[in-house]
# Entry
Amino acid sequence: MLRDNLNGALKVALKAQDKVSLGTIRLILASIKDQDISVRADGNSEGVSDTHILSLLQTMVKQRNESIRFYEDGGRHDLADQEKNEIIVIQRFMPQQLGEEKVELAVKDAITKIGAKNLKDMGKTMGYLKERYPGQIDFSKASIVVRNILEN
# Structure
Protein backbone atom coordinates (compact mmCIF):
# COMPACT_ATOMS: atom_id res chain seq x y z
CA MET A 1 0.00 0.00 0.00
CA LEU A 2 2.79 2.45 0.87
CA ARG A 3 4.57 1.56 -2.36
CA ASP A 4 1.45 2.46 -4.31
CA ASN A 5 1.16 5.77 -2.46
CA LEU A 6 4.81 6.56 -3.14
CA ASN A 7 4.56 5.66 -6.83
CA GLY A 8 1.41 7.76 -7.17
CA ALA A 9 3.06 10.69 -5.42
CA LEU A 10 6.07 10.34 -7.72
CA LYS A 11 3.81 10.73 -10.76
CA VAL A 12 2.09 13.76 -9.23
CA ALA A 13 5.45 15.35 -8.40
CA LEU A 14 6.63 14.71 -11.97
CA LYS A 15 3.56 16.38 -13.45
CA ALA A 16 3.76 19.30 -11.01
CA GLN A 17 7.52 19.62 -11.55
CA ASP A 18 7.98 19.66 -7.76
CA LYS A 19 11.73 19.10 -7.56
CA VAL A 20 11.91 18.66 -3.78
CA SER A 21 9.14 16.05 -3.67
CA LEU A 22 10.44 14.33 -6.78
CA GLY A 23 13.99 14.01 -5.44
CA THR A 24 12.89 12.92 -2.00
CA ILE A 25 10.42 10.33 -3.25
CA ARG A 26 13.05 8.93 -5.60
CA LEU A 27 15.42 8.59 -2.62
CA ILE A 28 12.73 6.77 -0.65
CA LEU A 29 11.97 4.39 -3.52
CA ALA A 30 15.68 3.72 -4.07
CA SER A 31 16.09 2.85 -0.38
CA ILE A 32 13.10 0.53 -0.55
CA LYS A 33 14.52 -1.14 -3.65
CA ASP A 34 17.85 -1.68 -1.83
CA GLN A 35 16.01 -3.28 1.07
CA ASP A 36 13.98 -5.43 -1.34
CA ILE A 37 17.16 -6.72 -2.93
CA SER A 38 18.67 -7.65 0.42
CA VAL A 39 15.57 -9.57 1.58
CA ARG A 40 15.27 -11.37 -1.75
CA ALA A 41 18.64 -12.90 -1.03
CA ASP A 42 16.99 -14.44 2.04
CA GLY A 43 14.22 -15.97 -0.07
CA ASN A 44 11.56 -13.26 0.36
CA SER A 45 10.36 -12.61 -3.20
CA GLU A 46 7.74 -10.03 -2.20
CA GLY A 47 10.14 -7.46 -0.78
CA VAL A 48 9.90 -5.54 2.46
CA SER A 49 6.62 -4.98 4.28
CA ASP A 50 4.89 -1.67 4.93
CA THR A 51 6.07 -1.92 8.54
CA HIS A 52 9.67 -2.11 7.35
CA ILE A 53 9.07 0.81 4.97
CA LEU A 54 7.70 2.90 7.86
CA SER A 55 10.80 2.08 9.87
CA LEU A 56 12.92 3.12 6.90
CA LEU A 57 11.04 6.44 6.62
CA GLN A 58 11.53 7.06 10.32
CA THR A 59 15.26 6.44 9.94
CA MET A 60 15.39 8.86 7.02
CA VAL A 61 13.73 11.58 9.11
CA LYS A 62 16.15 10.94 11.96
CA GLN A 63 19.14 11.18 9.61
CA ARG A 64 17.88 14.47 8.21
CA ASN A 65 17.33 15.91 11.68
CA GLU A 66 20.95 15.10 12.51
CA SER A 67 22.09 16.70 9.26
CA ILE A 68 20.07 19.83 10.03
CA ARG A 69 21.86 20.19 13.35
CA PHE A 70 25.28 19.84 11.69
CA TYR A 71 24.42 22.24 8.87
CA GLU A 72 23.10 24.86 11.28
CA ASP A 73 26.18 24.53 13.47
CA GLY A 74 28.29 25.03 10.34
CA GLY A 75 26.31 28.05 9.19
CA ARG A 76 24.89 26.28 6.12
CA HIS A 77 21.26 27.32 6.57
CA ASP A 78 20.52 26.71 2.89
CA LEU A 79 21.35 23.01 3.26
CA ALA A 80 19.46 22.84 6.58
CA ASP A 81 16.37 24.24 4.84
CA GLN A 82 16.70 21.63 2.09
CA GLU A 83 16.78 18.88 4.72
CA LYS A 84 13.73 20.37 6.45
CA ASN A 85 11.83 20.34 3.15
CA GLU A 86 12.75 16.69 2.61
CA ILE A 87 11.46 15.83 6.10
CA ILE A 88 8.12 17.42 5.22
CA VAL A 89 7.87 15.23 2.11
CA ILE A 90 8.85 12.05 3.97
CA GLN A 91 6.36 12.71 6.75
CA ARG A 92 3.51 12.83 4.23
CA PHE A 93 3.83 9.04 3.97
CA MET A 94 4.08 8.35 7.69
CA PRO A 95 1.19 7.91 10.12
CA GLN A 96 0.46 10.64 12.64
CA GLN A 97 2.98 10.62 15.50
CA LEU A 98 1.57 9.79 18.92
CA GLY A 99 1.66 12.52 21.55
CA GLU A 100 3.60 12.20 24.79
CA GLU A 101 0.59 10.97 26.77
CA LYS A 102 -0.28 8.30 24.22
CA VAL A 103 3.35 7.19 24.04
CA GLU A 104 3.38 6.77 27.81
CA LEU A 105 0.14 4.77 27.66
CA ALA A 106 1.57 2.58 24.88
CA VAL A 107 4.73 1.98 26.92
CA LYS A 108 2.75 1.05 30.03
CA ASP A 109 0.58 -1.29 27.96
CA ALA A 110 3.67 -2.92 26.43
CA ILE A 111 5.27 -3.39 29.84
CA THR A 112 2.10 -5.00 31.15
CA LYS A 113 1.60 -7.27 28.14
CA ILE A 114 5.14 -8.65 28.11
CA GLY A 115 5.46 -8.68 31.88
CA ALA A 116 8.55 -6.45 32.02
CA LYS A 117 9.90 -6.05 35.53
CA ASN A 118 13.28 -4.31 35.24
CA LEU A 119 15.80 -2.80 32.82
CA LYS A 120 16.74 -6.26 31.54
CA ASP A 121 13.33 -6.32 29.85
CA MET A 122 13.87 -3.00 28.07
CA GLY A 123 14.87 -4.66 24.78
CA LYS A 124 11.74 -6.82 24.76
CA THR A 125 9.60 -3.79 25.52
CA MET A 126 11.16 -1.71 22.75
CA GLY A 127 10.78 -4.62 20.32
CA TYR A 128 7.10 -4.89 21.19
CA LEU A 129 6.63 -1.14 20.63
CA LYS A 130 8.49 -1.20 17.30
CA GLU A 131 6.31 -4.06 16.12
CA ARG A 132 3.02 -2.44 17.18
CA TYR A 133 3.71 1.25 16.45
CA PRO A 134 5.97 1.53 13.39
CA GLY A 135 6.39 5.12 12.31
CA GLN A 136 4.06 6.39 15.04
CA ILE A 137 6.53 6.76 17.90
CA ASP A 138 9.93 8.40 18.17
CA PHE A 139 11.67 5.39 19.69
CA SER A 140 14.57 7.41 21.10
CA LYS A 141 12.03 9.30 23.23
CA ALA A 142 10.07 6.13 23.97
CA SER A 143 13.20 4.43 25.29
CA ILE A 144 13.55 7.21 27.87
CA VAL A 145 9.97 6.62 29.00
CA VAL A 146 10.54 2.84 29.15
CA ARG A 147 13.73 3.33 31.16
CA ASN A 148 12.04 5.71 33.62
CA ILE A 149 9.12 3.34 34.20
CA LEU A 150 11.26 0.21 34.55
CA GLU A 151 13.70 1.90 36.94
CA ASN A 152 10.90 2.86 39.34
In short: The two ends are 41 Å apart (CA to CA). The longest helix spans residues 50-73.
